[in-house]
Amino acid sequence: MQIDEIAWRSPDLGEARSVATSAGTLDYFDRGDGPCLVFSHGWLTNANLWRKVVDRLATSHRCVTLDLPLGSHRTPMRPDADLSPTSVAGLIAEVIEAVGLRNVTLVGNDSGGAYSQIAVARHPQHIGGLVLTSCETPDDPWPPAPFDALPGLALDPAALRAVLLTLADPAVRMSPPAYGLLLTEPVEPRVFDTYALAAIADDAILRDISKVMSATTSAAVHGAADILLGRRDLPVLLVWPEQDTVFPVEHARRYARSLVHGRIETITDSLSLTPEDRPDALVIAIAKFTTDRGCDRIRDCGQVWT
Fold first, then answer.
1. Which of 7, 66, 172, 298 has its Cβ near the most Cβ atoms within 10 Å?
2. 192 lies in a domain?
3. Checking DSSP bridges between strand 15-21 and strand 127-133, what pairing results, if any?
4. pLDDT of residue 3
5. Residue 279 included in any domain
6. Does residue 101 contact residue 37 with C-beta atoms inside 8 Å?
7. Closest CA to 68 of 57, 52, 83
């Protein structure tokens, strides 16, 4: 396997950039102009997850897509970096602050949704709206079954690497213990390789994801959700596939009802990785959300949700 192939990112994401953070250099991609969207992915995916969504939204929005240190990234963090849930969420806030973004709509999928909730709860400045799709809610453990053994396994990076080595086989990737519960169809090989192979090709990437997984607890995201439930100034949209078995739609409905300004839109023909399965549905939902917030009329996207 070639490192440069694993480090490939779709040109649809826009210009590759990086920013110095408290944990090390973090890569991100910037494309488009208009109301700002910041995209967060989950474990064992990367910025490529959002390529189809960004390609459609960049004609009317500024799309900043993060390459978080979650096991498929291309730039390792410092060896001493803290990659606990609150610290990873803090990296999201650090990028928003460093790039000078304001009134951001933060969009998170899978565990990227968990980190996004923590980021909004702990660093509310400059974030004006939140879009969650197939991620942890107050009713879900983090990580959910059948991935709940990963934090314990990750205490031993060598044991985690042995498991991740199975992902070198494309047939294994679509099995239920891997990505099979998250995708309706396989991702194109070039992208899938960037998800599946980075941590087994680079010991520093493996070190990072081992830290991330072993530090994860449900309490981190549930505590953030408790804070968000009291927020009267934050619009939250949940876009959820009805067929999702990892993150049940009933949990998302309950969460949306409990939020002061929450609502849910359900979609079909998708599992948890909605940006891969149904980018078209996500684009429509996100664009409507920013319009309802007044972001199409106010470039600064500062209008309060009504």
1. 66
2. no
3. unpaired
4. 64
5. yes
6. no
7. 83
Find, among 102, 115, 4, the residue nearest to 66 by Cα. Answer: 115
CATH no. for residue 56?
Answer: 3.40.50.1820
Angle formed at CA 108 by CA 104 and CA 113, multiple of 5 degrees: 120
Ranges of residues in the chain with a pLDDT under 50 are 297-306
In angstroms, rounded to a whole number, what is the distance separating the alpha carbons of residues 206 and 184? 27
Return d(Cα 262, Cα 306) in angstroms, integer: 12
Q: Evaluate whether residue 186 is within a structural domain.
A: no
pLDDT digits (tens, 9 = 90+) for 33-90: 999 999 999 999 999 999 999 999 999 999 999 999 999 999 999 999 999 999 999 9
Amino acid letter, residue 220 = A
Residue 113: both structure tokens together: 């949704």
Question: Hey, how many other C-beta atoms are within 10 angstroms of the C-beta on 268?
Answer: 10
C-alpha span between 216 and 209 (Å, rounded): 11
How many Cα atoms sit within 13 Å of 188 on the Cβ side?
10
Strands 261-267, 235-241: pairing kind: parallel
In a domain, 125, yes or no: yes
Q: Residue 264: what are its φ and ψ, rounded to 5°?
A: -130, 140
Does residue 107 sit in helix, strand or coil?
strand
Check residue 82 and report its DSSP letter: -
* Tally of domains within the chain: 1
Q: Which structural domain, as residue segments, surrounds residue 85?
A: 15-142+216-292
Residues 6+ apart with CB under 8 A from 156: none
> Residue 182 is which amino acid?
L
d(Cα 283, Cα 183) in Å, to the nearest integer?
18
Closest by alpha carbon to 208, among 40, 75, 102, 89?
75
Cβ neighbors of 202 (< 8 A, separation 6 or more) are 3, 6, 76
